[in-house]
Each structure stands twice: as C-alpha cells, then as structure tokens.
Amino acid sequence: MEGTGKYTYNDTDAEYVVKIKGRKPWWLLLLLLLLPLILLLPFEKDVTFKAINKKTEETIPQINVNFKYVQHKFFTLSPFSFFTADTIPLENETDEKGEALFTKVKYTLFQSLFYGNEATLVTAMGGCLIGDTITPAFKPLNSFFPEKIYIGFKGFDLNFKIVDEEDNEPIPDASVKAIITGKENREDNQTSDPGGYATFDGIPVCGNIEVIANKEGYKPDTLKGDVESLLKGEFGRTLKLKPEKGMIEFVVKDLKSKLTIPGAKAILHTTNGNTLEMTTNTNGVGKGCFDSISLNKNFKIEVTKIYYYDTATAEYQVMKFLKFNEEQRTIYMRQKTENLVFRDIDAETGKIIVGAKNIISINGKTVATEYSNNQGCFTVSNAKPEDKITIIASKAGYVQNDFTIVNKKTSSLDNQAKRDIPLNAIKEMHTKPRKNCGVHFSGTLLSDTEIKGHISKIYEPDKYGEYVGDGNYPSNAAAFPNAVKYTFDAIAVDKGTHLTIYSKPNYQGKVLLDVKGPALINNVKWKNESRIKDVCDKTFRGEFEANFPKNCRQWSSENMNTWDFGSSKITCDE
Predict the structure, then answer these.
(1) Is the pLDDT of residue 108 over 70?
(2) What is the pLDDT of residues 257-274, one digit of tens each?
(3) Are the C-beta atoms of 203 and 180 separated by less than 8 Å?
C-alpha cells in the first residue's frame, strides 16, 4: 500500500499483511557500477634522481640510471584479468647537473591508494663508477627535490695465491703487499692463509696494481698489471717464490765409543710440502751432507748401518739446523751386540772336546779365558759385528789352534759350524827317515861339518833339530820342538822328498816354502856370517857333495825364524 492513512487493529479483525515501498537513490547504483573504471584512472608524474660522488659530493654527469617499479592495476581489459602487477624498467643518463629525469611515469588511482608506499629499485653505473642501490618508496618520488644516488668506483675482491716455485705447494704466512694506483691510490697488507691465499677487498677496476710477496727463506716475487686484466683468471694472480738453498752437514758416531761411523746410509725426508727423499753415505770420517735443500723445508734424517740399530732424528727446519754447532748436528747410533757360542772339536773325528782352554781376545785385547763345557761349548759375550775375535784353543794331547775371525762372518750366518774350533790330536809324528825320504829341520845352520852352537851336520839330529820322514805335521812346534826352541835357521831336503811349509797350524795361512829335494836352505839372516858365507860355494866332503851339490844350495827368501809356529807336509817319491 502506498500513500498515507490510518489503520486501527482490533481483536476481532482478520489477519493482514501490509508491504510498504519506499524510494531509493538511483545514483548509488550508478556509483557502484563506475567504481572499477574510477580505479583505472591513469596518472603521470616526473621522477628525478641525482648522481653524487661519494667522496667529493660533486654531481656526476653521463651516468646511466636504471629505475624499476611495479605497475599495479585493478583490472585490465585485455586479457581480462584482475589485480595485475607488471615490472616497468626505465633507463636514462644524468645530464650536466648530474640529474636523470624520468618524465610521465605512469600509475593508476588503484596503485596510488593501495601501493603508494611500495619500494622501487634504482641503480646507477658508468665506466669505472658504480652507484649504491637505493629503494625509495613510490609515493614520495613526486617530491620537489631529486632522490640522491651516491656513486663510487667499481671494486672487486681479488685473491692472490703464493706458492713455492719448485713444488708448487702453497706458502702460508707470507707477507703480501698490494699497491693500487690510478684514480684511487692506496696500499694494503695481508698475510697468506694456510692455503697460500691473500685476499684484497674492493680493488677498483679502473686502475693498476702491484703485488709483492715475501717470506723468510725465499726470494720475493712481484706481480704487476691492470686490475681488469687480472680479473680474467686465477692463473694470472699466482706469485711464485723461489726458495733459498742451504747445505745440511752432519756427523754419524757410535753412541758408546763416540767414534765416527763411515759408510752409514742416510736418507733425508722433507715433512712439509711434497715428499722429498735424498740419500747419501757418510765418508771415511763419518761426515755426510745434503746439498741444495730449501731453507723453509722441515726435515728428518734416517740413518742405517749394518750391525747398528736404525736411527731417526727429530724434525728440524733447515734454516734453524744450519745454525747448530757440530755436536748438535751429530747423529748417534747404537751398535748391536750379541753373545756368540763357540765349540771345541776334534779336527779328525768331529767329536766335542771337554775342558779345552780358550784364551779370548777381542780386537787384540785379551778379555777372558773360558773352558769348554760338557758340550764342548763356551761363550764370548757382547761381541759387536766389527769385532775381530781371536781364540787360542789348547788341551793336552792336542796341537794348539789360534783361531781368528771377524764377528760379522759368524753372526750374520746362523751356522754353528762357523764357530767350531778344530784341534788336531798329537800323534807319533816323527816317522823315521829313509833313503831319499827325509828332511832335517835345525835351529842352527846346516853344512857338511859341525861347529858347536852354530852349525850342525846334515843327517845328524842333535839338541838343535830333528831329522824326520814323510807325514803330515799340523804343528811345527809340536813336531820339531828342538828346531823351534832355537828358531828355524836351516832345512835339508833329501832327493825325492817334497816339503811344504804353511804359516799357520793345520795347513792354514800362506805357503812359506814349497820345494822338492835335493835342497839345502840356510837362513838368509846369516848370509854374511864368516863361518857360513861360503856354504853355497864350497865343495862338501864325501857323500854330502853327492847328495847336496852346489846347484841345490840356497839362501832363504826371508827370515826363517818366523816359520816356527806353522805346519808342514812331507811326501816322498818312493
């Protein structure tokens, strides 16, 4: 129902529904329909940026300024999308006032209402210069005053590697100086890290740089160039220091005797950088050296020598080692010692000999007397490899044996037989001479006539000598005691008899005489004695001349007195 009127309601009235229609403003509906179009209303404004030098505060012309902002729209007709956001890049160059003007920067009412305080991005760059990146809000950019961008030189972090020229290993703790010249001049000092690197911050691109690296024990190296070229690769930023060299001299000695050890093998190991091994031998006075070793190397020396325990030095630096005195550069080695068991045996049967007396000398000095035990053995204690061991073995009924050997010849071989000392049993050595089979040994001279105490007669044994037949005589002292007592001075060898005399018992040592009779040999020691000097020239009496004619008589080649303690073999043709 429209209009005005009065309505009264009673309890008796029937139920009614009444609708009242009023009028609405038509323009509200129109406004609602036009609102999207209002938000799309476009606007424009001018934005200005000014480039300023960081240090001088002066404006900088001809610098590229990049300005980026996001353009927000509520609705776009094509391709019919809502709430769009497009990044708009703008670029301009500063004028002579250092200002870059961006005119008619577009935005919408929607952006102004809802994104007016959104940050924008502005950068500036030109040649060797680069500006700070600023992020001003969009709304204040319509200020009457330009937004400032501070400009400085483009800088980069440059790292340089310091290495050893020989092994290309990094050198830590090197002193590295950078001298930068150009539009910006400065110096910087760094120390290389464990990897050999030294880093310099903010090096300007447009400039030159000189880098100098130093370390004690090395010759310095210098690198020069323009920064832009050095940025091309790390290879161009490597400084190689040439190591200075030194000679390591040392001495090797015996720990106990303090005597030098010649011929010891020494191996040098470097313990930093690439492993370096050098080998040398000590000379005749125990000295050794390693030449041309880098002063900054750390090293140790290992020394080996047969019959010594291997020895290794502590770790040293070459530079410090060179300052040591000779005692500090001495390497001591401990010699190996051992107990050696010797055995006395019968030379013919190989059976052990119990109770034999053994006089022991080491290197010419008598150290002990030992008797062989019930196994025929005795011990030489604490023998060193280089020791010369002499044992005089004797027992009643046996020929004395002077046994000499260098320890290393026995201890290096695990063979007891090398340490067996054979003793020859004394038998009936005086076989009777017979025709064309006999030798007369004498402690005096021999001739066809006798002079008491000076000359004995051939074939007639006396207190000065023996006349024996064929056989093996392992000890001259035992076989010819009279001749040995007065020392050999003459030998007469019968026709058909062969005599060999050795310098040592048991047919050992060198051959002193090897002759076949007839032969009459007198000691050259008495060659000028008036009573004997014509023995080789005179005519003997009777059978003596027939048996020992002048052509078989001779003087010995050496003093026969030294033949006393050897051994002899006599053989006969018949």
Answers:
(1) yes
(2) 788 888 889 999 887 655
(3) yes
List, in order, residues 6 or more apart from 124 with CB less than 8 Å away: 49, 51, 63, 64, 65, 66, 94, 100, 130, 131, 149, 151
How many CA atoms are closer than 13 Å to the CA of 180, on its beta-carbon side? 21
Specify the 3-state DSSP secondary structure of 358.
strand
Alpha-carbon distance 344 to 472, whole Å? 21
Phi-psi bin for 482: left (phi > 0), alpha (psi -120 to 50), beta?
alpha
Amino acid letter, 509: G
Token output for 210: 């000189």
pLDDT value for 2? 47
- How far apart (Å, rounded) are the C-alpha atoms in residues 402 and 564? 14
CA distances from 297 to 66, 318, 334, 425 (A): 56, 6, 28, 68
Stretch 30-46: mean pLDDT, rounded? 74
Work out whether strand 238-243 and strand 155-164 pair parallel, antiparallel, or are unpaired. parallel
Q: How far apart are CA 332 and CA 255, in angstroms?
A: 5
Closest among 370, 384, 382 to 412, alpha carbons compared: 384
Helix residue ranges per DSSP H, 400-503: 408-411, 476-479, 481-485
Query: In this predicted structure, what is the pLDDT of residue 407?
Result: 58
Is residue 318 pLDDT above 50, yes or no?
A: yes
The residue-averaged pLDDT of 542-566 equals: 90
The C-alpha atoms of residue 165 and residue 213 are separated, in whole angstroms, by 13
CA distance 281 to 266: 6
Query: N- to C-terminal Cα distance for the chain?
Result: 185
pLDDT in the model for residue 409: 54
C-alpha to C-alpha distance for 134 and 148, rounded to whole angstroms: 9
Query: Per-residue confidence at 414, pLDDT binned at 50, 70, 90?
Result: very low
DSSP H or E segment with residue 508 = strand 508-516
